[in-house]
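Pair request: fold both.
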Amino acid sequence: MAGGTERTAAPRDRFTRLGTSPVAAAVLTGTVALSMVLVAFGNITDFGTNQQFVQHVLAMDTTFKDPQLMWRAITSPALQNAAYLAIIVWEVLSAAVLVFATWLWAVGLRRNTLDRARRASSVGLVMVLLLFGAGFFGIGGEWFAMWQSSDWNGLDSALRYVVLAGFALVVVHLPAGARQAD
């Protein structure tokens, strides 16, 4: 069009837009959101399996049973179940925030308004980091010596979520970059 502006982006431009950091941030946020939805769904629909996990970790019954550490054990079923329910509630809240953030990315990419999406993603991703980093590494791994258990050790699984959420958080905060015409 001579003298005017083209209303729609050329197919090549639309395709190359998929390679921008905001699109990568949106996809990573959606990936973590999906993972958290499935984690929460699994813990709700298969309540007993991970309930046993939490009970054994808190009871410290499969650790080295060092007398200087065993005073930390929580053997009360009521407290164990309360801890497990708190984990599930945190997972559901994290998933909800991340699903909302993914929606904000989808809307923001079309309107070129990404600040709300970045902030919502940051909240959800930090929630995941708190759950798996502070909760599983710090509290479960160190305080309750989960690392000593060959049967009830969730540190490898938690590491995957920490790495994914941490990487997503970095990408979410990458600058969008200068837009240059070819």
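--- second member of the pair ---
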Amino acid sequence: MAAKDVLGRRGEDLAARYLEQQGLVILSRNWRCRHGEIDLVATDSTRLVVCEVKTRSGTRYGEPAEAVDARKVARIRLVTNAWLQAHQVRWVPVRFDVLAVVAEPGAPVTVQHYEAAF
């Protein structure tokens, strides 16, 4: 596995753990369809929380959350609709979050949670 894939997997594991510590229940991880992938789908018992996780080894090239651009947002929304159909969820409020994980070597890992990011 490439180093960036290992870093990404670690970030998703940390983000999932963080969400669980906040009281959310993880419903799906790395759910894929022909349109793309959702990193994490969770619930807080009142709504569906769709999470995009961005992990970086530092902020030299910007904050991780900055990588979630308009094209990525459109794709996440499309894949979320596919997830809802695949799981036969007719209607539920949906919140879209971004979790930015920075795992800089030799420093504590940080998780920044942007609720209702888009």
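Observation on the second member. Strands lie at 25-33, 36-43, 48-56, 94-102, 110-114.
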